[in-house]
Amino acid sequence: MSRAEFQITGRRSESSRAKGRVTLTRADVVRAGAHLLDTEGLEGLSMRKLATALRTGPATLYWHVRDKNELLALILDETIRSVAIPDSGTWDERIMDVLASSRRVLLPRPVLVRFIWEAGWNIGSETLRVADGLIGLVAMSGLPEDEVADAYFALITYLFGFVLAETSSAHGRFGAAGEDDSEGYPNLLQYGPATDPEGMDRRFVYGVETALGGIRVRVAEHRRDRRRR
Question: 94 near 116, Cβ under 8 Å?
């Protein structure tokens, strides 16, 4: 791991310029932390290892981030920053767009899903922006107010679960490898559930559309109930 890998831009103070040193910025620390996360995983990310990668001491890092959790929140924010909340289209089209974009950026860093669950709401402004926008789109569907949070929860747990399954599954179709006892499971053989990479985009969309269809049904039922009163 070289310092050049992180493209440290930094800036030079008058004193450091005279000594030929580069002053680290928070962006440098986050970029290097993200690289360490990608190469060594969540368990391998530590402030000490990060300091070594940046050729500095741990105390210097603490000027920029309080601890590993804050560093992870910043990495998550940078990862999710490109996810936009569309301002045009129907509510369900916009939800599909947000979930698809979120899946795209989380796939290279599935370990962040674990961090999201463990962090609760101690996450950064970009992540909160996407969460706020998504739950706003769910509310736009017309669901009763007391069902909005439940629908939002169903959508994000599907997203996170899919990302984890997609990045940890052994790819292949049931029975394709000629398992000795596969004939004892006729339904699995007939329908052949699979996790082949080529089909995952289709499966993700199918699952989201199924969930959105359920929301539409609940909205229609709610409207019928109001008309009957």
Answer: no
Question: What is the set of domains in the chain, with CATH numbers?
Answer: 3-65 (1.10.10.60), 82-228 (1.10.357.10)
| Contact (Cβ atoms closer than 8 angstroms) between residue 8 and residue 32 | yes
Encode pLDDT of 185-207 as tens digits. Answer: 888 888 877 777 778 999 999 99
Question: In the structure, what pLDDT confidence band is assigned to residue 179 with cuts at 50, 70 and 90?
Answer: low
Listing DSSP states for 88-132 in one string gives SS-HHHHHHHHHHHHHHHHTT-THHHHHHHHHTT---HHHHHHHH
CB atoms within 10 A of CB 30: 20
Is residue 223 within 8 A of residue 217, CB to CB? The reply is no
